[in-house]
Amino acid sequence: MSSDNAKIVRMILRFRLLSGPRKGQEFRLNAGDVVGRSSTAISLLDPKVSSRHAEVKCLDEGVWELVDLGSANGIRYLGKKTRRILLKPGTQFRIGNTDIEVVEEKSSEPNRPVNPNRSIGAPPAPPENKVTIQDFLSQVEALSSHRKPSQFTILENPVEVTCVTGLEAGTTWFLSYLPRDFGYENIDIRLTDPSLGSKNLQLQSVTRSDIQCELNGEEKVTLKSGQTYEFGPYVFRVEVLKA
Fold it and tell me: What is the DSSP pairing of strand 54-60 with strand 34-36?
């Protein structure tokens, strides 16, 4: 077998949660993943964890570290508070009230470079001149179990949704297509406040400057760009960005 066809065994790391609300769950690490309450990559439902608590970084192939993002409680390793730790199999540390262990996952796939700018929680943008809008919406459909591609609308002017109050306060989502759903029991844009229960807030496009909010498929309110909407303990501000 030639060296070109040989498979390279590379180290893939996971976070295994040893305590906390999500005890037992595991998350595969990718460069750029953020650990936090409002993270779409590694979400910890722990009130002692900041919305954006720490970031996973890849220094070199197989060399990983976790860097604190200025959180209030930092990272605790070997009983001491620190701002940065190297990640290797067997490493244990604490974020908030959640104990985490680094475990290794073996893979025989060919080695691929890690993209530190990987976008989490959003469908990939269609490459220019290679993917049609229909193809793009088919990718979006993979994120939704209850909509077909024809039910999505690509927006001429993107929508900016900012959380003014609530656990995700200060977080902004830039939406390039609608409808989008916000909720605690949600596979689209997940909020981390369990008091929402099964409530679901859907944003729909009405006109270039108007956005319709639909609560649980019943109550509908039309917002002008710049107005706010109250959703349980949350308040959101909606802006239509002008081209």
Answer: antiparallel
Predicted pLDDT at 25: 87
pLDDT band for 211, please (50, 70, 90 cuts). Answer: confident
pLDDT in tens, 90-122: 999 999 989 999 998 765 444 333 333 333 333
CB 9 within 8 A of CB 108: yes
3-state secondary structure of 47: coil
Chain position carrying tokens 């109050």: 165
Query: Which residue from 12, 1, 26, 2 is spatially nearest to 112, judged by alpha carbons?
Result: 12
Edge-to-edge strand list for the sheet holding 189-190: 189-190, 180-183, 200-205, 210-215, 219-224
Give the whole-angstrom CA distance, residue 80 versus residue 88: 18
Long-range residue pairs from 68-74, CB within 8 A, at least 24 positions apart, any chain: 69/34, 69/36, 73/48, 73/49
Mean residue pLDDT across the chain:
75
Would you say 162 and 234 are in contact if contact means Cβ atoms under 8 Å apart? no
The backbone torsions φ and ψ at residue 129, rounded to the nearest 5 degrees and listed phi first, read 65, 15
Mean pLDDT of 201-224: 76
Is residue 66 within 8 A of residue 85, CB to CB? The reply is: yes
Residue ranges and CATH numbers for the domains of the chain are 12-105 (2.60.200.20), 153-240 (2.60.200.20)
